[in-house]
Every structure is written in C-alpha cells, then in structure tokens.
Amino acid sequence: MGGASEARLQGLTAASLTDAMARLSSHRAHILDLVSPTPGRVLFGRAATIRYVPYRQDLSDTQHPGFARSFYEAVTGAFEETVLVLNNPCRAETSIGGGVKFSRLHHHRMAGLITDGRIRDFHELAGYDPVFYCAGEAVAAGSRALMPIAVNVPVSLRGVTIVPGDYIYADAAGAAVIPAIHLDRALDLAHEIDEQDQAFLESIPNEDPDAVRRLGSGES
C-alpha cells in the first residue's frame, strides 16, 4: 500500500472501519478483546496466514514444517506491508509463540501480527518494530499443543474469516478485516461516517427536544 493510501488512514479507527464494512457487506468483519504488548500502536497491513491445528505427534514427525518454514512460505511479498495472521484452535490459554519465533517479524520489519491465541514475552515484543495484537500474555510454551498445518489459506479468528490478501486494521478498540476489493471504498466510507458523526456532535447542543421527539435526529 503506497504512502498516499496510508495517509487516508489518518484519523480513522477500528470502529469507523467496522461501520464502513457493515455498509459494504453482511458478514462479521471485526474482532474484539485483543491486547498488545505496545498499547496505543496501530497495526495495518495485508494478511498472510498460517493455519494451526491441535498438535498431533504422527503428523509432526512426518509432515509438520514448523513455524520457521511456515513463516517463509507464507510471507512471500513485501515483508514491511504484511500482517501475519495465526489462528488458535486450542484452549484460550494456549501460547502460539513468543519473542524468539517472532523476532523474525522484527528482523524483516514486518507490519506485525494478529492472533486469537496468547503470546509470550511481552517485554521483548514491546521493543520490536512490528505491532502485535493477541488474546493476552502466556507463560507456558504451546509447542505441544499447536502445530502449523497450512499457509495462505482462509483462517478464522473469533468467528471472523480472514483470507490471504485481506487488509487488517487494529487499534486498542479492536480489529477490522477489509477485503482488498473493498479497501478504497471502506476508507472513503469511514471518513464519511466520521464526518457525519462530527456534524451530529456539533448540532446536539443546539437541537430542539420537541423537534427530536416529533421527527427524530437522523442518527443511525
């Protein structure tokens, strides 16, 4: 995504982009209850996915590629524009990785990572350039609970389908998932929604209660 398009993100939020997606499609496109080792930073980029399944020893011994190989198979485009997406099909407390594995994202200056699993080593990740959003911090390794099984296939994070090439925007409120085909229109709509909200905000101090009772306010 070029600099001009990135400038169009200024002032937008996961909330306004979620509202925009609600006008463009009928499916759920937002993910809630995520945390970050660097609160306040915004994650934005194009999705590359690694699908995980619960660990199974016979597959691990013969076919399991491990995270490193899966990582380099999944991320084949511009590293700095990519958000790595990892799903967690196991219990909520399961760790999907930590500072060592995810140092690769820092080394390649990736946009960041989003997962519905927990990740370890927040203190290390806080010093990395990429932005991380996850379910929370973990202390126990998850290498005997989870294993990567496929790359750049559709994955689901908390009931939201993400396919490779989708755009991910995440901030402290949540994450919005935007199909590439809808990106330009979603950005335009989000700005329009923000402008409408600002207009309502400025009109509220002067509104007539009797008129609102009769006619409504026009707010959604």
Architecture overview:
- By secondary structure, the chain is α/β, with parallel strands linked by helices.
- The protein has a single domain, classed as 3-Layer(bba) Sandwich (Glucose Oxidase, domain 1).
- The chain is 31% helix and 24% strand.
- It has helices spanning 3-7, 14-24, 57-62, 66-74, 103-107, 122-125, 183-203, 209-215; strands at residues 30-31, 43-54, 82-86, 112-115, 119-120, 131-133, 137-138, 146-151, 155-157, 160-162, 167-171, 174-178.
- Strands 1, 2, 3, 4, 6, 8, 11 and 12 form an eight-stranded mixed sheet that branches.
- Helix 5 links the parallel strand 3 and strand 4.
- Helix 2 packs across helix 7 (183-203).
- The longest helix has 21 residues, at 183-203.
- It is elongated, with a radius of gyration of 20 Å.
- The two termini are 32 Å apart.
- The mean pLDDT is 89.
